[in-house]
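TA notes. Do not distribute before section.
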Amino acid sequence: MSSLANAFKLIKCVVDEQASGLNFTQILNRSGLPRSSAHRLLKELTSLSVLTYETETKTYRGGFSLAALGAQVTSNFDIRQACRPALKALHEALGNVVTLSICGEDSGIYIDKIEPKDFGLRLHSEIGKSFPLHCTAMGKVHLAHGSGPLRARVFSEPLDAFTEATITDPDALQAELERVRIQGYAIDDEEISRGLTCIGAPIFGLNGEVIAAMSLTAPSYVYETGIPDAVIETVREHAEQASLRKSID
């Protein structure tokens, strides 16, 4: 592993415990780096104000330079632009239609889409258009990971049926959302449009909140015998690539 990767590993270890800070022994245990390498990198990072060292408690924390860089990134962060490479890679890996969305007041909003020229089915996923949360793959992702007030707004109104497969029973939808949270993806099996199956996965921000969702849409006949695990995992992997919350190995 390069020195740069090791430096990022140290930064993540420290920032994960920003409230209390970490001492040198704790950093060694969590990072797994050799003592000499960790000591050298910590010295360099503190000299750059990326990390700070408190002599009284002998602990390291994230510094002002790191905070300033983070503030500049987040203040100018464009979700669509940041997620575009992963969305394009998903399209190249599996074909069909791939979409990206954010969550509005009580509905999802399409913010990007890549669609094959020869895709034979009519879609209603134009960029900027809203879509219901309770019967779409990306919508279920937003709803499953969303706030209590968001779910309260959605469940305060009748759940409209778009097809025979739409979940309109609140208890059944609650159970579905719990599955989405646990398994890390959502399925829309002809719930909003006959003949279309979608697989959606969450895109996480730095604080672990879901900031967007990514989905793959295919004709339902392609998955007549079930959606292969490899397809689901590919969608999840590309959503993770687009996420800001990543583990540094």
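Switch to the second chain here.
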Amino acid sequence: MKKLFAILLSLSLLLVPALALGEEETPADITGLWYTEVEGMVVELTLNADGTYAVAIPAQPGESITGAWAEKDGFLYFDGSDLPQINVLGTDVMKWLDYDAFLRREAPLIYAPADPLSDAPVELFTGYWRAQYVGVNGAMLFADTLGSPTEALIDGTNVALIGPLTGETVLETAYENGALTWAEGEVSIALALQADGFLRLTLTAGGETVTLYLLAVPQGEPVGE
């Protein structure tokens, strides 16, 4: 997660001395909590009325960056930098210039998986599937955060996978209790249908687990496009 923590460091500009705000009163209409998405992660920016800020990634509890901020001519400057980091477009929207991302007052919708079905017949697995989300260490990300989204072609118990985590591989799985499973050494894969129509693919390797959530794509659409 070093890359994600670097997002925080880039905003704080830790090598620049903190800004002395003096007697100027900071704008009250843009203080408060703001949300954006950077590289598939939800990022929270809190602007306090006393001229301090905090940046945090909910998926990484305990890791945050704090410092001082100031507004000038519709731009926000952090920790005494001469370069603006954020363009204030209104009381409900701002633009984070470094990442070409918009900050808003409302938190982005985060996918909440439904429960897996324990009695799904094997016929329902058949088809083309493409990953939409990926769960890693308790965080829910967009699937393309890890590269091209993983795709699956399933025909009965025969599963063909292509993606950054699986490479190109064909597996002969076992069907039991409404799920397709495969295991070899320390690597295992389980596929289960959920009540919301998603296909849950759980990949475990070396004690680490990543979960992909795939949706069916039109029949006949080639895997990898």
